[in-house]
Amino acid sequence: MTLGDSTAVGLGDPLPGGGWRGFPMLLRDALGASTLLNLGCTGARMSWVRDDQLPEALTASPDVVVLSVGMNDTLRSDFDPEQLHDDCAAIVGALRAEGTYVLMVRYHDHTRVFRLPAPLRRALYRRIVALNGVIDAVAATDPAGIGVLDLDLLPGGYERSAWSVDRLHPSERGHRMLAAGFAELLSDAGFAVPYPVSLECAGGREVTAVQRTAWLVVKGVPWLARRGRDLGPVIVQSLVGELVRRPATVVIRRDPTADC
């Protein structure tokens, strides 16, 4: 079972007939599972998963749940690490109480993939660090029942080929890398993984240069403008904070006419 946002949905790995595949289907095939319940939703935040996706997940009594969520929270002006921790702990705690093995994602430095203006880049990086702190804290409560895939350490994770045109979602290759990483964690936890995930792209839809350009014009630039407005107050606060914290430089000039 998969809970989370658009990465959990499979965005970035389109199928020829429409829709998305993504790491959930690739991981299902690696496990040889007959069913996959994917409750992921584009735009989902941690609180949404807790309120909307978790209740349905608990009724299904899954053996394994992949929780991929949090980046949308970092891109909002109401970002709150304490609330994130409360929501994440509630989600994972409820799943573990049912005996479900939980896989989580520890995020990479997204500013190395998605180029942003310097003030926005610094603000986003600090939030990713805070989000990872939440993931670490929740995972530490039950190391035997929680596996964490660290995207910062994923081989090839910062290569251009791992990312779709928007630089926010994994490409087909990126989704294959995620599926392979999760499969390895499950194998280490004692789950049977009879069919290794191939990193060779196959079965997806090729994205053309025209489609990439169209995305940038129709969706990419408007998205960046919306996020800039939403995070504008955060950027200003960050810049003011840096100026306040920056130590003053005092220059003492000696009067050449003065006696030594």
Model description:
This protein has helices at residues 6-9, 22-31, 46-60, 71-74, 81-97, 118-140, 172-188, 209-245, and strands at residues 2-4, 64-68, 101-106, 146-150. Strands 1-2-3-4 form a 4-stranded parallel sheet, sandwiched between helices. By secondary structure, it is of the alpha/beta class. The longest helix is centred in the C-terminal third of the chain and has 37 residues, at 209-245.
* Ends distance: 79 Å
Number of helices: 8
Structural class: alpha/beta
Proportion of strand residues? 5-15%
Strand tally is 4
Largest sheet: 4 strands, parallel
Poorly predicted residue ranges: 238-260
CATH architecture: 3-Layer(aba) Sandwich
Element pattern in H and E: EHHHEHHEHEHH
* Top CATH class: Alpha Beta
Key descriptive features of the protein:
260 residues; alpha/beta; Rossmann fold; 4-stranded parallel β-sheet; globular; Ester_Hydrolysis_Enzymes; hydrolase; SGNH_hydro
Helix and strand topology:
Elements: E1 2-4, H1 6-9, H2 22-31, H3 46-60, E2 64-68, H4 71-74, H5 81-97, E3 101-106, H6 118-140, E4 146-150, H7 172-188, H8 209-245
Parallel strand pairs: 1-2, 2-3, 3-4
Helix pairs in contact: 2-7, 3-5, 5-6, 6-8
Offer a concise description of the structure.
This protein is of the alpha/beta class and 260 residues long. The chain is built from 8 helices and 4 strands, in the order βαααβααβαβαα. Strands 1-2-3-4 form a 4-stranded parallel sheet, with helices on both faces.
